[in-house]
Amino acid sequence: MKKMKVNYIRKCDAVSGMLSLPDASIDMVVTSPPYDQMRTNGNAAVFDFPPIAREIWRVIKPGGVVCWVVEEQISNWSESGTSSVQRLYFKELGFALYNTLIMQPNFQRTNTRVRYGRSPQYCFVLSKGKPKTIDLIRDRKNSTAGCRTPSTFRNENGSLRFSTVGVVAEYGVRQTTWHYMTGGSHLTADEFAMPHGSMMPEWMARDLVRSWSSPGDLILDPMCGAATTTKMAAMEHRHWIGFEPFEKHYQISLQRMKSLWDCPCGAINHGTDFACGKCGATKLEQSA
Ligand SMILES: C[S@@+](CC[C@H](N)C(=O)[O-])C[C@H]1O[C@@H](n2cnc3c(N)ncnc32)[C@H](O)[C@@H]1O
């Protein structure tokens, strides 16, 4: 069987890009569509959701996971409802609505005098059956860490049964709301990527990739923008494919992937890092 080409970004729209991929060839999709008319970049007309969703369903492997990061536009006193429509369409295609995350910025400049905050940014985590990889991030500090607590179970007749006494771990699994800092430097240190204008924070893509894929898996972003997903996939030792139809974004995505550098210790580093994040060797030592 012909080996599938991986680790590339192609200048094309999401549907034609995915049509070039075999059925059930992708382990994970991490993507973020254009949000209604919020950031059109003059290109909103080309975004047609149903064929994109159908192609994602076709190319994702059984047990594969799709992270669909989306936010709603508010106009005429109403949220658009677009993300709800998309979510239910994914369900109709056969996806399980496996987990819903809310990406909560710590600070919002938006005027909120007439409602509580702005529309949340969701990450719909969809799976084709039971996810084949689940590696949840445990970075929530337990307030009762170190305490000894008995586990209790409810018997069928309603009475309580006490079992072993366990020690509460220092950290538990992260909850459904993920908090993050807003502002360019909290998204990425790649200043050249800023003109894209609607990038995902790097840590968000990285944590999604870590949660539902394994090293060596193939990650797709069919609307890859400035290549945040593919960059984080590469740094996490996954294979990657990205599609982006618009020249300006495509050029940024190419530059972003080219700026990564490999260290002989095995780590893949940000272009902006002078020293390897794993072994500390400097770029100069690498080239000497
Ligand atoms: C919200 S941005 C994605 C940003 C990306 N996650 C990142 O962090 O850089 C949406 C991207 O979808 C692209 N886009 C719009 N219509 C598209 C289509 N039909 N196929 C593929 N990409 C499309 C836009 O050019 C834009 O770069």
Describe what this molecule looks like in 3D.
This protein has 288 residues and is of the alpha/beta class. The chain is 24% helix and 27% strand. The chain contains eight helices and 16 strands. The chain has helices at 14-19, 49-59, 82-93, 184-187, 202-212, 228-235, 247-258, 283-287; strands spanning 8-10, 26-31, 60-71, 74-75, 78-79, 96-105, 121-127, 140-141, 148-154, 160-167, 171-172, 177-180, 218-221, 239-243, 261-262, 268-269. Helix 2 (49-59) packs parallel to helix 3 and helix 5 (202-212) crosses helix 6 (228-235). The model is unreliable at 38-45 (pLDDT under 50). Residues 13-14, 32-34, 41, 43, 46-47, 196, 198-200, 222-223, 225-226, 228-229, 243-246, 249 line the site of S-adenosylmethionine.
Show the helix and strand layout.
Layout: E1 8-10, H1 14-19, E2 26-31, H2 49-59, E3 60-71, E4 74-75, E5 78-79, H3 82-93, E6 96-105, E7 121-127, E8 140-141, E9 148-154, E10 160-167, E11 171-172, E12 177-180, H4 184-187, H5 202-212, E13 218-221, H6 228-235, E14 239-243, H7 247-258, E15 261-262, E16 268-269, H8 283-287
Parallel strand pairs: 1-14, 2-3, 2-13, 6-12, 13-14
Antiparallel strand pairs: 3-7, 4-5, 6-7, 8-11, 9-10, 15-16
Helix pairs in contact: 2-3, 5-6
The protein binds S-adenosylmethionine.
For this entry, give a set of tags.
binds S-adenosylmethionine, 8 helices, Rossmann fold, 27% strand, 288 residues, alpha/beta, 24% helix
